[in-house]
Write a sequence for this structure.
């Protein structure tokens, strides 16, 4: 998982930490987490689609949001996260 700043203007600040992660999840990985995971939608009775996702979190901490995605590329996921901020 690659960490990044949802607001790139914070990157040069010495005390600022990256506040988001971007990552790829395959269908096989999602199934491996099981039906009690965030990767399963009980309303649709299906796993989420494979692709690039992001969520907000600080290094070493649990996510502060659900996964957002899927996106076709890592760059698209990061761009979406930065558009939300």
């Amino acid at each position: 998982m690659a960490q990044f700043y949802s607001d790139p203007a914070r990157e040069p600040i010495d005390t600022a930490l990256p506040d988001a992660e971007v990552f790829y999840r395959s269908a096989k990985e999602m199934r491996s987490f099981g039906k009690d995971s965030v990767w399963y939608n009980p309303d649709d009775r299906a796993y989420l689609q494979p692709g690039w996702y992001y969520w907000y979190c600080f290094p070493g901490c649990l996510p502060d949001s659900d996964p957002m995605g899927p996106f076709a590329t890592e760059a698209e996921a990061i761009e979406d996260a930065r558009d939300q901020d």
Notes: Residues 27 and 50 are 5 Å apart (CA to CA).
